[in-house]
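Forum > Structural Biology > Help requests

Title: Can anyone predict the 3D structure of Lipocalin family protein?

Hi all, first post here. I have the sequence for Lipocalin family protein but no way to get a structure on my laptop. I'd be grateful if someone could post the structure tokens.
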Amino acid sequence: MQTPKTRRPVLVGALLAAVAAGGAAYAYSQRRAPLATVHHVNLSRYAGLWYEIARLPQYFEKGCHYVTAEYRPLADGRLEVINTCHKGEIHGPVKKARGVARAVDPQTNAKLKVQFQWPFEGDYWILALDPEYQFALVGSPDRKGLWILSRTPHMPLSTRRTLVTMAQGKGFPVDKLIYTDQPAGPLT
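Reply #1:
Sure, ran it for you. Structure tokens for Lipocalin family protein below:
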């Protein structure tokens, strides 16, 4: 039978183990540098159709090919978001998801929250953006979401490599990227 004196070392040991585990988790979170975004995004120029070139695996994009995202400005300053995916193959059945995006950092418009189902919102941070708004690197601060986007279905390999290298430098697991099948030309 344990007495209060014999239980004390067990409780102290358990407390020390919990503190050590918490400290390790804190130290790990501090090793990751804050995720930098672009300095400013003109949401009117960002609006329009984007093709997904690559992504980190997402449950809601499982089996998706020929993926696009279209952004349309709304009167209240938000963006309507229409994501389109062809299930199974490029010519597979179309699946669409509609949502809204709002800037949470109005100074830069580079940090957005996207909502497809109330009350859930996801982080959508613009990490790199071509000055002509022809390609973008988008991710989430937890490094679990990452997308390479282009205004055209295909992107020069050198540009894609540059964006992948940039994402790797920001702490994203680029070895897990899925390169999205896109059509070679207009679909008929």
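Helices lie at 4-31, 43-46, 157-169. The chain has three helices and nine strands.
Shout if anything looks off.
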